[in-house]
Specification:
The structure holds 2 protein chains of 2 kinds. Chain A contains 15 helices and no strands. Chain A is mostly helical. Chain A has 2 domains: 2-50, no CATH class; 80-303, Orthogonal Bundle (MetI-like fold). Chain B has helices at 2-27, 40-46, 50-56, 69-81, 96-101, 109-112, 125-129, 153-158, 168-180, 198-206, 224-238, 252-258, 269-277, 318-329, 331-341, 354-357, 360-369, 381-396, 402-416, 418-426, and strands at 32-39, 60-67, 88-92, 132-133, 136-137, 140-145, 148-152, 190-191, 212-213, 218-219, 263-266, 286-289, 302-303, 305-311, 344-345, 372-373. The chains are: A mainly alpha, B alpha/beta.
């Protein structure tokens, strides 16, 4: 195979050095590059162009009915109260759910990593199981748990004398209910990453600290946290990006209701795009979300102190 | 390298072709297969009516696919975009204009001329109307739906209206009397959930409002007819006859049984729900009545709703598909379907059956169907209805005045209809 490649390359008119170093790499990468181009770059570019058109239900029937409208979709979006509502809901989910998820996964990782715990692999499996369970199945079970009259959560509240809450039917409680479920469903993944990070911290650091008389809290603050910094950054960024794309949970559990209290940006995008077929509008929404995520990620990277300092 | 890649591509193409061929084969066997998409509860129950059809038509097989209502609209549009629409489909009748714009469904007029079962005079005029786009018929009503007034018989009798109010004036008076009996405790006359667009739209249709103007390219919600209806609707909240906000009534059946409110505008599915969910001692204390009218010509207009059966243009088995529609429209099948689902039959002949005649709650619906009107038949209607709902909510909790809400509604609707105006000007 290699000789065949060289043979073909030699016949071409490119300089010797260039073809020797690039060509085989390109050939080996080409299947992946073709796939990424066809299934990622082209659609993204198409969506970007789409966001400057008014492609809608009429255009679906007759392509010539689509027009270039410049920034009209973006301007309409900024004047759409539903967009601001969905942005607020999504931020609520990211700001409360994201840190909560990271905290829970870090705590779970430390628990499992602790020398006092037996059956570590069993716990690892149990905590990771929700991540690989199908969301629809999870949602069905959680709908039972959240049931206003027969649900487990309200039964537990009843034992301590708190009135039942209509978890998914009340605009105030629907988002907390979604956050609770999402955190439970997702923390296992970050836990595994934190676990790997924890196991990479050399034991002699802790031994030295203990000899100097450092207690548990001090060890955590001075050794565990700094040593986990790169892992935390990775987990933080990935979780944030993932949580901005909140969709499946409200889609399956509440359809964005009640009173749009669980309408996320992606859910709005889906409704605009596939329910009403306002594709131009919906593509503009996607790029606004992209800009927001990019911005927040840059801020996160900026805030993270570099390791050399 | 190149040759092995091209081999791979060839193999992939062959594989796809083989798949496509086998897919074609399965539809073109000795039997014609009709793919029928039905939605929600209808999809679950229709299966029971299919064997009889297949027995009568040995050459046809019906392949029923049940699609949940919440995903139906998306699924149908993507099916159209992906060229995989079914032969026959159940379509909510407000969706018909959209699929006509897409040129996706077949005009059915030609079939009607040869049919003894599906005839114009067998259907309620207002319902039949919803299936006509520019005088062309695109759907056959399958089951029908409208909104009437559900009320507490005991409470309205005490207020002097044992059969429910007949006019807007009586309606307001009934509300006033019910409200005056609330001894300090919180109690209301009527429930108008602001998560429903139907009540303000029905009142608008009652006053003769067209809702849109200039060939449905501009909003006409600030026009005097709709303004009068909207003011009447908002007055229920301002006078304290209707509770404000949706969270007040967590469970409508409980609220109705407790007398927290005694009237509610809703549809036929709630006949079954009320019988199941209200406590036994409540069962002879509720009734249904046609909508009150603005003046003296009771009943007032209500919404023409329900589902129709349509044939997709891309279907290769159109005559078989029509035969299936005809079968489902037979009065005996319509009655059987009513018994399975509680869906009210579209064919008038079916209404003579004892199961419907003997049901007192259904009577109001029968009278109401004689006076139903369709909302504007344009693809944007559902989005407009959502906006009506948003502004009705804003005005109900006094966040906006009636004038402000209607002006803002017209402004939003005009933005939505911009494309329609452009297309109209092109023609």
């Amino acid at each position: 195979m290699e000789s065949a490649v060289h043979l073909r390359v030699r016949q071409s008119s490119f300089p010797e050095r260039f073809r020797a170093s690039i060509s085989p790499a390109l050939v080996f990468l080409s299947p992946a590059l073709v796939a990424i181009t066809v299934f990622f770059f082209v659609p993204v570019l198409a969506a970007f162009l789409l966001s400057f058109t008014d492609f809608d239900i009429y255009s679906l029937g007759n392509f010539s009915y689509a027009r270039f409208v410049g920034l009209r979709n973006y301007l309409l979006l900024l004047n759409d109260p539903l967009f601001w509502k969905s942005l607020k809901n999504t931020l609520y989910f990211v700001v409360i759910g994201g840190p909560l998820s990271v905290l829970v996964s870090l705590s779970a990782a430390m628990l499992i990593n602790s020398r006092l715990v037996k059956w570590k692999s069993l716990f690892r499996l149990v905590y990771f199981a929700p991540v690989v369970t199908s969301l629809v199945a999870v949602a069905v079970v959680w709908r039972f748990l959240y049931h206003p009259r027969f649900g487990l959560f309200n039964a537990m509240l009843g034992w301590i004398g708190i009135n039942p809450i209509d978890w998914l039917g009340d605009a105030t409680w629907a988002m907390p209910a979604i956050i609770l479920m999402a955190v439970w469903k997702n923390f296992g993944y970050n836990m595994i990453i934190f676990l790997a990070g924890l196991q990479n911290i050399p034991e002699y650091l802790y031994e030295a600290a203990r000899m100097d008389g450092a207690n548990g809290v001090q060890q955590f603050r001075r050794i565990t946290l700094p040593m986990l910094a790169p892992t935390s950054l990775f987990v933080g960024v990935i979780t944030m990006i993932g949580y901005f794309q909140l969709f499946a949970e409200p889609y399956v559990m509440t359809q964005g209701g009640p009173l749009n209290s669980t309408l996320s940006i992606i859910l709005l995008m889906y409704q605009q795009g596939f329910r009403w077929w306002n594709m131009g509008y919906s593509a503009a929404l996607a790029f606004i979300l992209f800009a927001i995520v990019l911005l927040v990620t840059l801020v996160q990277l900026k805030l993270q102190p570099s390791r050399e300092e | 390298m190149k040759s092995s890649l091209s081999k791979l591509v060839t193999a992939a193409v062959c594989g796809l072709l083989a798949l496509a061929l086998s897919a074609c084969k399965s539809t073109s066997g000795s039997k014609a297969v009709i793919r029928f998409w039905a939605l929600g509860a209808e999809g679950e129950n229709i299966q029971r009516l299919v064997p009889e059809f297949e027995r009568r038509n040995p050459g046809i097989r019906v392949d029923v696919q049940s699609i949940p209502w919440t995903a139906a609209h998306e699924k149908l549009l993507t099916a159209y975009a992906g060229n995989s629409t079914p032969d026959v489909c159940q379509l909510g009748n407000t969706w018909i204009p959209e699929f006509v714009v897409l040129n996706a469904i077949e005009p059915l007029g030609q079939w009607l001329d040869h049919s003894s079962i599906v005839r114009k005079e067998n259907y309620f005029p207002g319902i039949y109307e919803t299936n006509l786009i520019d005088t062309v018929l695109y759907g056959i009503p399958w089951y029908i739906d409208t909104r009437v007034l559900f009320f507490r018989k005991d409470i309205l009798s005490a207020a002097g209206f044992p059969d429910g109010p007949k006019t807007w004036q009586e309606w307001t008076e009934a509300c006033r009397r019910i409200k005056s009996t609330s001894d300090g405790g919180e109690k209301y006359a009527i429930l108008l959930p602001t998560s429903e667009w139907a009540p303000p739209v029905i009142l608008g249709l009652q006053t003769g409002a067209a809702l849109l103007k200039d060939g449905a390219t501009l909003g006409d919600f600030s026009g005097s007819d709709f303004r009068r209806a909207f003011q009447f609707y908002i007055d229920f909240f301002r006078s304290g006859f209707a509770p404000i906000g949706n969270t007040q009534v967590a469970n409508i059946y409980q609220g109705f049984a407790e007398g927290f409110f005694s009237m509610y505008i809703t549809g036929p599915w709630n006949i079954g729900e009320f019988s199941r969910r209200l406590p036994p001692e409540m069962q002879d204390k509720w009734m249904t009545a046609p909508m009150p009218a603005p003046e003296h010509d009771s009943p007032g207009v209500s919404l023409a709703g329900g589902s129709s059966l349509v044939v997709f243009r891309s279907s290769k088995n159109k005559s078989e598909a029509w035969r299936f529609i005809e079968y489902l429209s037979e009065p005996s099948q319509q009655i059987a379907f009513y018994k399975l689902t509680g869906d009210l039959p579209a064919h008038r002949e079916a209404w003579k059956d004892s199961s419907l005649v003997g049901n007192p709650y259904v009577r109001a619906f029968f009278r109401q169907f004689e006076r139903v009107k369709a909302p504007p038949k344009i693809p944007e209607w559902e989005q407009i209805a959502m906006k009506v709902q948003d502004y009705a909510e804003a005005a109900s909790c006094a966040k906006m005045s009636v004038e402000e809400a209607l002006a803002a509604l017209d402004r939003d609707v005009n933005v939505m209809l911009e494309k329609r105006r452009y297309l109209m000007s092109r023609k």
